[in-house]
């Protein structure tokens, strides 16, 4: 569809939209992206295009944002596409895939590889136009009541973890459990679950997990860089004047940068505080990482063999992802290895 | 000054600006940021606000962009602030400082730390409002005719390298040389210089340095994440309608994201091609890195003791930079270390 053109800026219509966020306001870093976008779009349209964000679950449950946009309940959403992994594993490429890419690599694939093109094709079937909407960076592996020392320790572990990672971990005998954020603390405390992953230090600290499960394992190999996304109803998008389309599109970049910056600014001090309060920081053992990597590879192969949409995106994503490592291991990694451990004075 | 408000969008004026870029068009990744910005601003203002980018040295020499904006020769510029290190070392904090931050950390300091606030204060004295304008990521250490094996090898080395790094390297007896990009190849070939740093694989490949200096050392510890910047004449900025100010500001974020994404998408294949064509990739020896780190620390202390502006920014930047390492060494680094070296199939 072709967007209507306006003869002059004076013709710009007043438009009010609702944006359903998958996130509560206390996740200020993620939720804030919707506000960043809405404020900027308003400014860019002389106050005429108002997008009002609603925190979850005010008008839509956190994992129902995709359906709400698809069905036209709301014009816009802000969410993590891997919440819809259960509907189609292909959604995960718009967010994070186990042993996939980090934040910069994911953005590069989306914008300068074929990622955005492929995901737009995929989302079109859901009446959705997708945009970048932030990234958390590499997340933590989560909070464990007992230290994970071997692959054996993963067997029978009741672990609150999301869709794609859960599928991979089942191959190691782990029992993935689905729980809303608000239920995790009590379940961990009572021992109803043995472990739970959430996001990273800044968000995890608010929920107090360190009080009830002191082993903080890393990395969250299932989300090396979890991208958030804005969804716009395609039907509503096509009705917008070009200037309003441009306002939304450019504002998504601003929200994208600001979210990652906020996480990067806030996580370090949160981690330092957690370490002063019972938290024992431990990498996953190499053997566990290897076993998970192999299990992920099996899961990808199985999914690709039965889901042509998944395979189409995976084939492109795979080449891009495999091509990144050599270069990122050079300047970027060598600088990081030398520099992060050294303080200037 | 307060920006004029417009009664309605119909009042929006037609404005034509010139933007002087410090970069030639063949550096499409960096130069492209000015085009990204100009195109978006035009769209956002219904074609009324036209910013025309000029590649260097069409109207302004690459290292004269700051003066051109300050003096009102052009309304806008796109440049690397460390080009003006010779005028005041404080400029470097807006771009890259030896053993400073990587791309994400620099952005985080600017947007969610005190970086933008402090640099705006500093730039105000130059009649400039500064904005983010991209990042290259960690650059390479450069091309060397002979392999660097020890600190001793740095002594007497004629090295084409920029201001701040040159100052640091002088403490090791290195002789920094200033040369424009177009002069490097011939100087290296003739042995007039022993080494030269430029940017990274994608840009370096175009200049063919691998034909005349096969040792490609890394990392470029003097630019762990070199930020580019847009400059706007403060006088011109204050005259803009608020909507035009918003259009510029938001478009700078888009240009910022797109440049890093383009580098990240294009560097890997360029590195692979260079490695198939004579290039020998070598990290700087640990002893050299340590010596450079110590020399950088000395340089910072000397500069801070004689330049109050530098000290003011350094004191804030230092706390932020030192606070980043612990967290970045956890999830992000552990994921990188495991993941970058492993291919999925």
TrEMBL record, chains A, B:
Matches recorded under Gene3D superfamilies: Bacterial extracellular solute-binding protein, family 7 (3.40.190.170), Periplasmic binding protein-like II (3.40.190.10)
Superkingdom of the organism of origin: Bacteria
Keyword line: Metal-binding, Signal
Any one Pfam family match given in the protein's UniProt record, by short name: DctP
Residues that, per the record, bind substrate: 139, 160, 197, 223
The keyword Metal-binding appears for this protein: yes
Annotated Gene Ontology cellular component terms: tripartite ATP-independent periplasmic transporter complex
GO BP annotations, alphabetical order: organic acid transport; transmembrane transport
InterPro entries given in the database record: DctP_fam (IPR018389), SBP_TakP-like (IPR026289), TakP/all3028 (IPR041722), TAT_signal (IPR006311), TAT_signal_bac_arc (IPR019546), TRAP_DctP_sf (IPR038404)
Stated name of the protein: TRAP transporter substrate-binding protein
Organism encoding this protein: Undibacterium nitidum
Lineage: Bacteria, Pseudomonadati, Pseudomonadota, Betaproteobacteria, Burkholderiales
């Amino acid at each position: 569809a072709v967007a209507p053109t306006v003869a002059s800026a004076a013709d710009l219509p007043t438009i009010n939209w609702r944006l359903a966020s998958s996130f509560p306001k206390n996740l200020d870093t993620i939720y804030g992206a919707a506000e960043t976008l809405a404020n900027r779009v308003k400014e860019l349209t002389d106050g005429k295009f108002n997008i009002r964000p609603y925190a979850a679950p005010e008008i839509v449950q956190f994992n129902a944002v995709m359906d709400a946009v698809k069905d036209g309940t709301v014009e816009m959403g802000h969410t993590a596409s891997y919440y819809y992994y259960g509907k189609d594993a292909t959604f995960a490429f718009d967010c994070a895939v186990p042993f996939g890419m980090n934040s910069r690599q994911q953005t590069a694939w989306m914008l300068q590889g074929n990622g955005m093109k492929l995901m737009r094709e995929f989302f079109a079937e859901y009446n959705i136009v997708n945009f970048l909407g932030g990234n958390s960076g590499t997340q933590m592996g989560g909070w464990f009541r007992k230290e994970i020392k071997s692959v054996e320790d993963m067997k029978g572990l009741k672990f609150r973890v999301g869709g794609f990672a859960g599928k991979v971990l089942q191959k190691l005998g782990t029992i993935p459990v689905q729980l809303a954020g608000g239920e995790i603390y009590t379940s961990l405390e009572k021992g109803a679950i043995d472990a739970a992953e959430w996001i990273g230090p800044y968000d995890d600290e608010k929920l107090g997990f360190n009080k009830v499960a002191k082993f903080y394992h890393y990395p969250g190999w299932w989300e090396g860089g979890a991208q958030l996304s804005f969804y716009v109803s395609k039907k509503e998008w096509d009705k917008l004047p070009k200037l309003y389309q441009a306002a939304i599109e450019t504002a998504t970049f601003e929200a994208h940068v600001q979210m990652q910056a906020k996480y990067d600014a806030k996580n370090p001090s949160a981690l330092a505080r957690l370490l002063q309060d019972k938290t024992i920081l431990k990498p996953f053992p190499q053997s566990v990482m290897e076993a998970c990597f192999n299990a992920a590879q099996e899961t990808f192969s199985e999914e690709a063999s039965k889901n042509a949409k998944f395979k189409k995106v995976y084939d492109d994503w795979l080449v891009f992802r495999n091509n990144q490592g050599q270069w990122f291991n050079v300047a970027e990694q060598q600088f990081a290895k030398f520099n992060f451990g050294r303080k200037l004075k």
